[in-house]
Amino acid sequence: MADRTLATAAPPRTSGPPPELDRPGGRRAELRRLLEVAALVGLVVTQPLLDVLGRSPDFFLFHRADPGDVLLLVALVTVLPTVAVGTLGLATRLAGVRARTLAHTAVVGLLLAALAVQVGRHATGLRGVPLLLAAGVLGAAGAAAHRRWRAPGRVLRVAAVGPPVFVALFLFASPASAVVLPRADGGAAGVAGPGEHPPVVMIVLDELPLVSLLGPDGRIDATRYPHFAELAAGSTWYRNATGVSGWTPYALPAMLTGRYPAQPLAPHYSQYPDNLFTALGGLYDVRAEESITRLCPPSRCDQPSSPEQGLKALVRESGRLLRQLVAPVDSRVDPQESYRERTAAEVGLDDAEPVPDDPKFRWDSLNDNQPARFAGFLAGLRPTDRPALHFLHLLMPHAPWAYLPSGARYTAPEDLPNAGAGWAELARARHLAQLRYTDRLVGETLRTLRATGLYDRALLVLTADHGVSFQRDWQGRGLDAINHAAGEVAWVPTFVKTPHQRAGRVDDRNWEHVDLLPTIADEVHVRIPWRVDGRSARQAPRPHAEKVFYDRPGQPLTLRGGVPVRPPDPPAHPLVGTTVDAAPTEGRARVANLAAFRAVDPAAGELPALVWGTVPDEVPDGTLLAVAVNGTVATVVPVVPRDEGGRRFAALVGDDHLFRVGANRLDLYRVAAHGGLRRLTLG
Prior knowledge:
Blueprint: H1 2-8, H2 27-54, H3 57-62, H4 67-91, H5 97-123, H6 128-148, H7 151-159, H8 162-172, H9 177-180, E1 191-192, E2 200-205, H10 226-233, E3 236-238, E4 241-242, H11 248-257, H12 276-281, E5 285-289, H13 311-326, H14 344-347, H15 372-379, E6 388-393, H16 423-452, H17 454-457, E7 459-464, H18 479-489, E8 494-497, E9 505-507, E10 511-512, H19 516-523, E11 526-527, E12 547-552, E13 555-559, E14 585-591, E15 610-614, E16 624-629, E17 632-638, E18 649-652, E19 666-671, E20 677-682
């Protein structure tokens, strides 16, 4: 009997994993599920995010991230989502094997749907709800296929090699790799020659087209921009000056190296070891306030980060970018859109300067509204025993626009369009308002230089790296804008005040921004030990009128034409500035930030100056709306097609004197063809 039992028993297991590993709830099954989740999370989260950030080393430089911060962010992006999803899946085991299997299938379906949204946005014309519905159908189909057949799961498990590959490409092959794995600090020093070595004060503004400063006569509009006009009156204005690129990470290195952009490199000292800071660093004390570049090596200057920068800021802004990447609507994912200069109050700086004696600076707190980078730069403008280079790259009047001419701030939706009928005009109005505040900062710089005795002795340079187009169909600074509105993208203000210069003059030579470094070197009597593409202003002008401009490094474009003419201002509507006592009520509108008008505190330095919302669909596009604050019409704007956020109008109240302490009354009026008004009920 015993012999018969032995003969019918299963043979002993001699190799392979224990059978419990292959069960649906076994460890091997869980490993397969984890690999599938890792593959899908890598495609949905890791790859798109690292792709954008890898092409944007300026993102890390702006947030003062060190290599450790970047590596931690990469680890979080790569591992944390997979661990989170995997942990939630494991928790479903408590409900049994069937529940675990169903939960995993649901996760696969959701991740496939998220992937379909991204692919569909790039490959089809579907957007919004239709794209979500199509992605949902594809996700459900993919989940069903995964549940029924083994092949999809096998493909996903092979694709789990993706995240390590994406990380390797980011760390070793992307432009951002220079920030994570920088080479040694070094660069060629200039050779000091005979002659005076004056202090150098250099200010680079950002996204400032020359035409924004011009008046109808082709000169600086002294009414709107008195301090730019003041600077022009005592310096040489190179009126025919152009930047070399519409993107700061290419434009600024060209300015500081004297070379045209040749390769898509990170704006980092390891990629551009020979630049203004290394050339003057052996002779000059370098005090650099950079924003989205790190061209000054640590051996020449220190740029410490604050607690609000580094990893904390990287995680916050990466989350914002990811929301744009996975959204079912079009989004120009550009990290530079988040580059807002933090104020001195936000950074916690003490007031370095007294409140300007200017009635437009109405409240004490406006000194806190100065950008912290500017406040630090201003505090350092003091005479020194050793020649000093004071350098400031300030992201003003660069978007996001947040300042009124007085210096008061306002808030706006992050996704407010900048292009299209109505939106491009609003963008230009906001740009000009912020430019007028930038003019105030220029005035503060000139006042400080005179007060400290530096103004007369210093070589003072003020320019911008590039401009921007506000033409309705060609808004921005990409290739379309360059081809159709080069006068707004390439031509920038450039002022050079040499030591002891007192009289202003205009020089219309063909200036390109690669001329900046050789010009500075000549003025401070330092020889540049490397070949440059530019020519000093002390040399003969270029014999040709054509300009060289780069949308992409190594691919020069030829621009023709001279100094651009300012586009005509739109005629002011006759209702602006008038008082509205009463008007019949007819219709309704929704104002998104209506509650902000209930308790306004001008002393806080912030006003609800941007108004946005919607009107019913039956109100035709192009209908004019008059926006009144406390009974005075501040502006008149058109109703436009509904944007992705559901908005059909937005208006800037540029005159902060219309606001008062406490409750403020906001009224919207529909303007009839004959000029009559119908007040809209607000909600």
